[in-house]
Amino acid sequence: MLPIILRSGLIKHFKWKALLFAAMLSCALILVSSFAAFTGGLKNDNIHWVSTKSGHIHIKTFKNDSISGSPNLVFVLHGDAPKSKPFSQYILAEEIASHNKNTIGIGILRPGYTDPDSNTSDGIRGLSVGDNYTEDRIKAIAEVIQQLKDIYKPCKTILVGHSGGATIAADISALYPELVNSVVLISCPCYLTDWRAYMQKRDSSSPQWSAGTSSISPDQVANKINDSTQVVIISGTQDSIAPMKYSSDYYKLLQSEHKNARLIKIPNQGHQILLHGIVASAIESLLKNKLLSQ
Q1: Do 216 and 135 form a contact (C-beta atoms < 8 A)?
Q2: Please, which residues have CB within 8 angstroms of residue 35's CB and are 6 or more apart in sequence?
Q3: 260-266 and 55-63: which strand pairing?
Q4: If we measure between CA atoms, which residue out of 162, 153, 148, 152 comes closest to residue 280?
Q5: Of 55, 154, 191, 290, whose Cβ has the fewest other Cβ atoms within 10 Å?
Q6: Helices (H), 39-123
Q7: pLDDT of the chain along its 294 residues, tens only?
Q8: Residue 181: CB partners within 8 Å, gap ≥ 6?
Q9: CA-to-CA distance for 203 and 14, rounded, in angstroms?
C-alpha cells in the first residue's frame, strides 16, 4: 500500500503545482494584454485604450457585421459637458456603425474626461470655458486617429465633433490636413474669442470665460484645411449656447478660402443635436459619397 500512498501524494502535489502555474500564467496573460493595450499594441477590435505621447485615451469601438479589408472609420468627439460625464459620442458611433456596411464607429473620450463607466482619459479637463482646445489635446486626439488608421487601413475617415468637440475637430482638419477625408462640425463655437465673450455676458458669474487661454480657434487656422476635405457644418437655429451665427460665419469663411464646405440648418433646434437624425443622415451621405445640399 505504501507505493500507492506515495504515488497519490505525488499526484496531489503535482496537481497543486499545475493549478498554481495556471493561475500565474493567467495573471501574466492579463498583464501582457493590459500592457499591450496601454502601449499601442492594438491587434483586435476590443480596443479600449490608445497610448499617445500625452497619455492614455479611452475609446469605444463599434464594428458593423459587414467589414472588408478597408472599412470606413467614423470618429466621434463629445462636447465640453461642463456638468456631466459624456457618453453621447459612444451612442452616435454605435448608431453609425450599426446602420452602415463596412463601417467602424469609434467614440473618443477627450483628454481629462471621465465617462459614466468611470473610464478616464489622461490629461487635464480644464474648466469647460473654451480653455481645452489646446495644441497638446488636439495632438493627442490626432494621434488616436492616426494609430487606429494604421490598424484598420480605412478607405475613408470621417471626424465628427459636437460643440467643443467640433472646435477640436475643425482644428484637427486644419492642423493635420491629411488625417481625415471629411469633418462634421455640430453646434460649433468656431469663433472662439467672440464666443467666449458671448458666454461671459451670458454667464457673468463665471469670470473664467474672460481668462486667457492657449486654445486654438478654428477661424484662425481655416486656411490650412485641405481643399479636398469635405466640411459639413450643422447648427440648430435656436441654439443659445453656440448660436448659429458662429457656424454661418465659419461657413462663409471657408467659402472665401475656396474650401469644400456645406452648411445645414436644423429648424427649431437648440444646442444638443448630436443625436438628431439629420446628423446621422449627413454622415451616411458622406459615407456614400453623396453631395450634401446646403
Answers
A1: yes
A2: 41
A3: unpaired
A4: 162
A5: 290
A6: 88-99
A7: 323 222 233 333 334 344 434 444 343 333 333 333 333 332 346 789 999 999 999 999 999 988 888 999 999 999 999 999 999 999 999 999 999 999 999 999 999 999 999 999 999 999 999 999 999 999 999 999 999 999 999 999 999 999 999 999 999 999 999 999 999 999 999 999 999 999 999 988 788 999 999 999 999 999 999 999 999 999 999 999 999 999 999 999 999 999 999 999 999 999 999 999 999 999 999 999 875 544
A8: 156, 157, 158, 228, 229, 230
A9: 71
* Share of the chain residues as helix, strand and coil, in percent rounded to the nearest 5: 45, 20, 40
Q: How far is CA 147 from the centre of its chain?
A: 13
How do strand 182-186 and strand 156-162 relate by DSSP bridges? Answer: parallel
Computed on alpha carbons and rounded to an integer, the radius of gyration of the chain in Å comes to: 23
Half-sphere exposure in the Cβ direction for 176 (13 Å, CA): 22
Question: DSSP strand E in the chain: where?
Answer: 49-52, 55-63, 72-77, 103-108, 156-162, 182-186, 230-236, 260-266
Residues 6+ apart with CB under 8 A from 78: 86, 87, 88, 89, 107, 108, 109, 110, 113, 162, 165, 274
With b for 16 or more beta-carbon neighbours within 10 A and e for fewer, the 72-84 pattern comes to bbbbbbbbbbeee
Alpha carbons within 13 angstroms on the beta-carbon side of residue 43 total 6
**CA-closest candidate to residue 93, choices 114, 80, 81, 109:** 109
Evaluate whether 87 touches 115 at the Cβ level (below 8 Å). yes
